[in-house]
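Ligand-bound model needed. fe (iii) ion.
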Amino acid sequence: MGKVLFDNGSHKCIVFDDIMRESELKGGDIQSNQFLIIHGDAGGYEEGLLFDPGGSKLIQPLHQRLKSHVSTNRIKKIVLSHQDPDTGAGAAQWMMFTNTTTKIYVSDLWVRFIPHFSRSDFAQEVFVPVPDKGMRIDHNGAEIILLPAHFLHSPGNFQLYDTASKILFSGDLGTSIMSGENTFGPVVDFEAQVKYMEGFHKRYLASEKACRLWAQMVRKLDIEAIVPQHGERYFEGKKTVNKFIDWIENLKCGVDLFSNESYAVPGKSTAS
Ligand code: FE
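Prediction:
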């Protein structure tokens, strides 16, 4: 039904981490987390924002779960960290079966790609292209900052910093690939967690330079937690948050690790 990450009475952050685990949807798909941020104004009127609502087949079960937190016709904004199907395909699905005035925020680079996920046409005005430098969004009175995180991993990539909860929703950054069925919770031993993160980050992120620039930017923010889109672990408390930022800052990854061998023409198949 979703786990509450933050609740001060008027502002709530909820993660749905188990839709695939609880349903027949698990297949071989990578596990993904979906996020709902609800903000009530001084008059008690609430609105919801979805961050990375997941792939097409997750949208109906997500819609069911959302109902226990907020009326789904009050979900006015969907923000996509990037263009991948596990983050963005569900947004097109949402527009097909809800008849709301939801706006979809997505990188300017991908705004003309996301409609390809849809089987029906919807107006271009649905989309709000996010410029490379990022932007601030008014979410029913709460301030949301879309931070540039380009090449970590997508070339047009954003993270969502929620100023009320001080949670940084980091998209693919911070992903842990753990085996087995784990319950969602904070990292207890950062050093032990690295082995579940290394493989993903070294191959999916573009370069150490992008990591370093990102680290320099986020150190200027007051962050209580970093919560990624994949995996059942997140970074809670300043000490662990800083350990994660330090780790990313000096991570050799992507093109740093590539060589001539990475681009060698494959040899002839020995299979008959
Ligand atoms: Fe991705």
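The pocket of fe (iii) ion is lined by residues 82, 84, 153, 172 (CB under 6 Å).
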